[in-house]
Amino acid sequence: MASHLSWHIQCPVCLSDFVDPVRLPCDHSYCRDCITGHLQSSLGPSLCPECRSPYAWVDLKDNRLLKNITEAFRRRPGSPTDQVSPLRPAQRPEDMMCREHQEKLKLFCEADQKLTCTICKEQDKHQGHHFRPVKEAADRNKRVVKEALGFLVKENQILDDLTERQRGEMIKSGSLLEQITSQFEVMHTFLRNKEEELKKELQKQQAEAMTAMLKNLSVIETRAGAGREASIMLKSTLEIKEPGGFLLWWEDEGYAVTEGMKLTDGTRTKYKSKVEDVFVTPESVSLGPYETHLPFFVWKEMLTFIRPVPDRFTVKEPGDSYLKVSPDGFSIRQADRQGSLFKSYSPGAVTNETFQTGHHYFEVDVGGKLDWSIGIRVVKSKENDLLVPLENDIQLHLKHDEGLVFTHNDTASPVEVKDQEKPRKIGLYLDCERQQVSFYNAENMSLIHTSFCSFVKPCCISLGPGLYLDGKNSEALRVCCY
């Protein structure tokens, strides 16, 4: 019976005896730690592990009856729990006897880490060993246990923190999927609505055009029918061989018919035309540029509601006579100059805005420039600031004599891209949470390079219009605004 009962005091989650059991609304019970861990790890609605019924924090109720039954079973003589319990009275040192000498175990051998009696101490196997009284040894070893326990408590706190953070990352992963799904649904909804709008406009124009074309077709067909009948009649009269018969027709109908076809003109014979004022009504259905450039015009309309669009920033006046910043702060170029002085001088500027948290995306139009640099630069701080970032300068360069080059502080490395054509727009993405800086070809959104950035200090965007190259590289770098 005891064996049968043991099955009923086991938690279905950990398969061990219940510890602080709680009951769910569905009457299934679990250890409190087991079910709260299950609850915290659930990304969606929390369901009972056994019957899948929903539950929440407020539904956890103490199961005192099950707790009492479990504790009573543990205290039962001969139970598995009783056999292994470290708290049995028989294991107290003052009551334990040496099996060999039937003496009380009053000493503790530090060499063998065992309890001994005074007679064991004198035996050869313990020669040279150091002994301590039981209480002193226990106090000494308790300090070791406490030290180990302190270490475990600290470790467990770190692990608990890591557990919560991991669960947070799991939730973020699910949230990211929902976010992407939601954003695509917004675009799908816009495209479906735009499609319906254009179809309705097209159907309306088609109906109006069809009405006009049907009306004109009716006029054309009526006149054509009358003309065919008159033609057949006249052709048949020409087949009358008897002159008298022909003239009888002429007298009865022919003269009136032919005279009715003529126009009044004293000089020459002219006939009334039935086609001069009849034209084909053209197909007038038109959607303008949507007919030939539909994707582009729909994309332009999408820009009016798509959020977020690329961030804007303004270039700080660098105080360098060789650099010219536009009045609106959205572009920078090398100043026009004469002569060949400072040919290798390639100054740059930074933005007024700084970034240290969040996600930011920028686009810079580099056009057909032969030489430029775009990246981030850590904002200089006070000398007594103890936070030292791992980077000061992260840049993507186009060098006229080398191609694309990436630099991290003073370390440079060439960048190989699949598309051999030079990008005309550069996208810069700052992911401060994941500590990443990424460069994209903003024309097709292909990744050029990704780098680590600690973001322990605020950073600003860095722009360099490149070498002047005798005026061949005088075009400005421009911040893209949408």
Automatic annotation (TrEMBL):
Domain B box-type: start-end pairs? 93-134
Q: Which UniProt keywords apply?
A: Coiled coil, Metal-binding, Zinc, Zinc-finger
The molecular function terms of the Gene Ontology recorded here are: zinc ion binding
User: Per its UniProt record, what InterPro entries does this chain match?
Assistant: B30.2/SPRY, B30.2/SPRY_sf, Butyrophylin_SPRY, ConA-like_dom_sf, SPRY_dom, TRIM/RBCC, Znf_B-box, Znf_C3HC4_RING-type
User: Domain B30.2/SPRY, which positions?
Assistant: 292-482
UniProt xrefs under SUPFAM superfamilies: B-box zinc-binding domain, Concanavalin A-like lectins/glucanases, RING/U-box
Q: Which SMART domains match?
A: BBOX, RING
Family, per entry: Belongs to the TRIM/RBCC family.
Record flagged with keyword Transferase? no
In terms of Pfam families, this protein maps to: SPRY, zf-B_box, zf-C3HC4
Q: Which Gene3D superfamilies match?
A: 2.60.120.920, Classic Zinc Finger, Zinc/RING finger domain, C3HC4 (zinc finger)
Protein name, UniProt field: Uncharacterized protein
Q: Which CDD domains match?
A: Bbox2_xNF7-like
Q: Give every RING-type domain span.
A: 11-52
Q: Which residues form a coiled coil?
A: 188-215
